[in-house]
Amino acid sequence: MKSAPQQENPSALPASSSPAASQPLPAGLDAMLCFAIYGAAHAFTRTYKPLLEPLGLTYPQYLVMLTLWEDDASTVKQLGDRLGLDSGTLSPLLKRLELSGLVTRKRNRQDERQVNVHLTDAGLAMKQQAVGVMSAIGQATGCTRDEANAMLEELVALKERLLKAGE
Amino acid sequence: MKSAPQQENPSALPASSSPAASQPLPAGLDAMLCFAIYGAAHAFTRTYKPLLEPLGLTYPQYLVMLTLWEDDASTVKQLGDRLGLDSGTLSPLLKRLELSGLVTRKRNRQDERQVNVHLTDAGLAMKQQAVGVMSAIGQATGCTRDEANAMLEELVALKERLLKAGE
DNA sequence: CGTAATTAGATTGTGCGCAATCGAATTGCG
DNA sequence: CGCAATTCGATTGCGCACAATCTAATTACG
């Protein structure tokens, strides 16, 4: 550890307040990447809320539906792996989706530990409405395709590095 | 609405699966910027957890402490404005911090609707330990200073656009 | 084959985040 | 000045996220 030069890294260290150029650098909390991501994530949730309300969905439920539209009859574990959520979050969430009539949960015949989550007709039909949601969100972000893709790749790479650092 | 050309925006629209170059573009959920941010935010929380455990803090509590180290005796409203959280979140959170002996909450004499949140000696002293946390997080992200700053600025701008779109 | 180890999903408990609501205090306006 | 409107923080209610735990089922290994 001592042989490796300590890399000064700004993602969590508050930047100094000295102006490097014509524009002062943000200091403290505002210089922390994690806080910017925290803020952006909450902003997305808030932006989604009125759009998803007519569908009767919360944002995490929407993510689950998106996953099922891609891969209907996924197991709880597959949903969890896909979304980075555990069964503590998914079980009650899926129960509520089932109560809403959007999905059904069925024990897998081959491996009875597994539960497959199937879309109902109503769940399938909802996919059409999701197009409007995606369109509205796309506009709300004010990003071009290239901008969004660039950010997305950086964020995914960051996530992977963080998860790897925690192993 | 009809006169404005519909801008195709990838931040929420699943990208097509056709390879544009040597590397296939992610499709569906993986093409959604909001999901990348959701994932990165959770990854940060997870990365922070073992680092903050010795301090007895959760990540949101840590953000509050950071804010108070910057501006001791902030009101609940100021904390909320700073962190984008409402009193429903902050009141119980601050209560727990008070129970931990890190802060005290006092009614403001000039305007009794307000409550000022003061750091205790223990709360002040904890700032030293936070340096280690920041350092570890900085390393875990694997970002250079310039990379982190660039991402941070984009994310902040995105957050502002999202919040503005919701008005 | 039998048993220990592992897996899968549900549950319990805790903290977080937000909408709605409330009571008290302050501000704004006629 | 009196009262309506607004502000502030606390509370209630609900859904989310995760750690720990549990039961049942499956896999691994001697």
Description:
The structure is a homodimer of 167-residue chains. Chain A has 167 residues and is mainly alpha-helical. The first copy, chain A, has a domain of 80 residues: Orthogonal Bundle (Arc Repressor Mutant, subunit A). Helix content of chain A is 57%, strand content 7%. Chain A has six helices and three strands. In chain A, strand 2 and strand 3 form a beta hairpin. Chain A starts with 32 loop residues before the first helix and ends with a helix. The first copy, chain A, binds a DNA duplex (30 and 30 nucleotides) through helix 1, helix 2, helix 3 and helix 4.
Largest sheet of chain A: 3 strands, antiparallel
Q: Distance between the terminal alpha carbons of chain A, to the nearest Å?
A: 18 Å
CATH classification class of the domain at 56-135 in chain A = Mainly Alpha
Secondary structure: number of strands of chain A: 3
Q: Which two protein chains have the largest interface (Cβ within 8 Å of the partner's Cβ), and how many residues from each?
A: A-B, 67 and 66 residues
CATH superfamily of the domain at 56-135 in chain A: Winged helix-like DNA-binding domain superfamily/Winged helix DNA-binding domain
Helices of chain A, by number, come to 6
Which strand order do you get reading across the main beta sheet of chain A? 1-3-2
Just name the CATH architecture of the domain at 56-135 in chain A: Orthogonal Bundle
CATH topology of the domain at 56-135 in chain A: the name is: Arc Repressor Mutant, subunit A
Roughly what is the average pLDDT of chain A, rounded to an integer?
Answer: 86
Portion in helices of chain A: 55-70%
List low-confidence stretches of chain A. 1-10, 13-23
Oligomer: homodimer
Q: Would you tell me the structural class of the helices and strands of chain A? A: mainly alpha
Order of helices and strands of chain A: HHEHHEEHH
Overall morphology of chain A: globular
